[in-house]
Amino acid sequence: MTEQEHIVRQKIEAVIFASEEAVPASFICQVLESGVSAAEVDDAVNALNAFYTQSGRAFRIESIAEGYRFMTIPALAPLLRKMLAPKIRRKLSQSVLEVLAVIAYQQPVSRSDIQHIRGVSPDYAVNKLLERGLIDVRGRAASVGKPLLYGTTKEFLDFFHLSSLKDLPKLREIRELARDKDIENFLMSSGDNNEQQGEYEKGYDN
User: Fold this and answer.
1) Strands, E assignment, the chain
2) Which UniProt keywords apply (predicted)?
3) If we measure between CA atoms, which residue out of 124, 126, 94, 121 comes closest to residue 108?
4) 141-177 residue pLDDT tens
5) Are residues 72 and 17 in the same domain?
6) Chain centroid offset of residue 116 CA
7) β-pairing, 67-72 with 59-64?
8) pTM > 0.70: yes or no
9) Are residue 144 and residue 172 in the same domain, yes or no?
């Protein structure tokens, strides 16, 4: 490996390390401004991961949400969950989880569509998911009233460690994922109002 290749790998490593979300190869190329291609970024990531493996590091650079992100190896997950566990745990909202699943598998979908599937107003859950950045507005439907349509975001892919929507697990598997305590804490905040009341609030975006 030449000195120039070493410097490029260092820069790529630094960009990914400093980012709080998955970094696309195109963005890395743009930041480097040195004529590095996406293929060369991928090669550099593979070389870095080989070094991490050989040296017994606790992390790797993973390809998720159409980008790269540092992640600890799976064997250390129980340790980190224990470290990050809050003193008080609250049960994950089943309604938020169900709405997230509907949006993930039916997107783009409106609030009225979600209500038709679930039988109750999804307003609280949709607002919570929007707040957490797991879904966003994808436009308006051509139906009467032109209701807003919702879909999942790159943050959703990142959070569930998915490369793309093609990697979506079966519904029962996403329920298992969402029982993870880190996800519980992300979806639920200490300042929430009574969820049961929010579940039945009426009113839709038009």
Assistant:
1) 59-64, 67-72, 109-110, 135-140, 148-152
2) Cell cycle, Cell division, Chromosome partition, Cytoplasm
3) 126
4) 888 878 999 999 988 888 777 878 887 766 566 556 5
5) yes
6) 26
7) antiparallel
8) no
9) yes
